[in-house]
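Continuing the series of single-chain predictions for the mutant panel. This is the parent chain; the variants come on the following pages.
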Amino acid sequence: MFPPLERSSIFVPELDPEFRPASLWCRDFDDRCRLHGSRDVAIRLTRPDGTFTTHRETLLPPAPEWRELNLRHLERIIKFLLWARGGNRVSIAGAPELCEDLRQIYSKRGARAFDADFIRKVFSAELVIEAAASLPDHTDGPSGASGARGVEGCRIGFDLGGSDRKCAALIDGKVVFSEEIAWDPYFEKDPAYHFDGIMDSLRRAAAHLPRIDAIGGSAAGVYVNNRVRVASLFRGVPEEMFKSRVEEMFLDIAREWNDVPLKVVNDGDVTALAGSMSLGSGGVLGIAMGTSTAAGYVDASGSVTNWLSELAFVPVDYRDQAPADEWSGDRGCSVQYFSQQGVSRLIPAAGLDIDTNQPQREQLVEVQQAMAAGDERAAALYRTLGTCFGYAIPHYARFYDIKHLLLLGRVLSGEGGEILLDQARTVLREEFPTLSAGIEISTPDETMKRHGQAIAAASLPVIPS
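Parent structure:
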């Protein structure tokens, strides 16, 4: 169990009062380190290609009375790092007595078996947790997409979500067509459903262009050289079919389009890319609140990193009975708060008369309709999400150098999205004033919120087929 906080929060999510912000828990832990003594710990995540990233934390002394508290803190930090930065070898300097416990937790039979299996699939290598004598101070550099961003010519951009697929056609950077089509790919067993749906959207966009010079796409998941490594969109496809019919699906699509240059990346990276392009700046963390919680990061130099940034699975709520993610099984992860799932989860608490057995997309539409009609219950739902998000931002900033936070996604559409953001800004300003002064939170216009990822995807530096 996580020990209680010594300092209470200023704000309490009105429909989720037991929410326990990871940011405050960690701040309290840091205070305990200053009071009782501390030690420096370095955590390095290394990938099979030799690139790595290093994160530094402070732990309490290695005394028996602090062991459980140190383990809880370090396990949650490693959980965040695995999903945010990625790597199959975790080297820890400064806490040798905790490494065996962490190995058990992240073993195939441990509490975090899902995470270990995910890492194995992404990097085609087993997750290793090891003690290290010391680690150098330097961290890895960015790994940007090959080539430069492109806007010239006739391009198609697409974005694949869990409840809709979006597609845009651009000529020399100007949008000439943009469309959104509902679909339900999550639990489809036949990958032909996905292939045919993507091809349909591409054909619709192509009809508005004289030719196709390049295609860029975004989707939730991990993609390496246009190959699907792990993706929630295909979670319903049996494992044996995934290898043969999903892994190279986008290569097959490129061939269908006469081997047009094509690039597919994580949808969060495209969110960050869109922000960096519009802001003309780096240090952008983009978060899309849609079917899931997609994220991506552009560093201070304006480069897309090789980090995973799968923030749907990072913990932001440290209560023991936090809502569990239905896929990973872990509790308190971002997806249960900053997505359509988060909206659906709070509908009963809000007292809204909405059928929660219908698809979450339709539930969100009804919540937005209630908001437009001035229903205070819907406003309370958005304020609750905003409070949780306001406390999550400082926790994200523990791992990312954020100058701009760009937010998109269906959840943020309409007046409810404004309420959510206003509440988040208030929490950040009142609880973390120094951090608040250094982070600009922005959203694109309404069209960009819903179609911006497809538009930005069209400018991705493409890989010739």
